[in-house]
């Protein structure tokens, strides 16, 4: 029996490229998906567009309502607003599994680079704020372009899942594996999230040099 049976997947910041891409893939896998956005109108519009494009049903609303509706809540928002949003939504996220997908990156003329985060990583910052939630890190290195591309099936990549709760990491590994071609793989405890988030800067450099949408694969598994 699937651990995901009956679970609602909410995506905060779900109207951006990565959020839309994940919503598309989860909806196509038959999961119940709620998109959150800064405004309910934008969330509803994006959800309607996804529903029409995929022949599925995706619901859209504001971030607060999405957080309330979700059993598993993905955080896919810009780094600049990460801490502020999670602090605001802490009551709605208490008792839930929260999946932080955010990469703290900066950009200059030389390209992307990892930012220093006081708590160690975006995932650890989320855990420090959401003290009554089970925080997991995942989906950091998946190309939004491939997720959104209906012709890109399967998406050949692995998703490293980081967390301190075995049941929660198993659940998010299964969630990742609902996307054709993707494997969810345990990547260590939450304290190891920094290097996974930072790796996205390397992948951006690879993609620019080779004009591709690189991901990661773990060998010998």
Automatic annotation (TrEMBL):
InterPro entries the UniProt entry points to: NAD(P)-bd_dom_sf, NpdG, P5C_Rdtase_cat_N, STEAP_metalloreductase
Keyword Oxidoreductase: yes
Domain of life: Bacteria
Transmembrane parts of this sequence: none
Alphabetized UniProt keyword annotations: Oxidoreductase
Gene3D superfamilies with a match to the protein in the record: NAD(P)-binding Rossmann-like Domain
Keyword Nuclease listed: no
Limits of the Pyrroline-5-carboxylate reductase catalytic N-terminal domain: 8-104
SUPFAM superfamilies xrefs: NAD(P)-binding Rossmann-fold domains
UniProt-recorded name of the protein: NADPH-dependent F420 reductase
Gene (name only): npdG
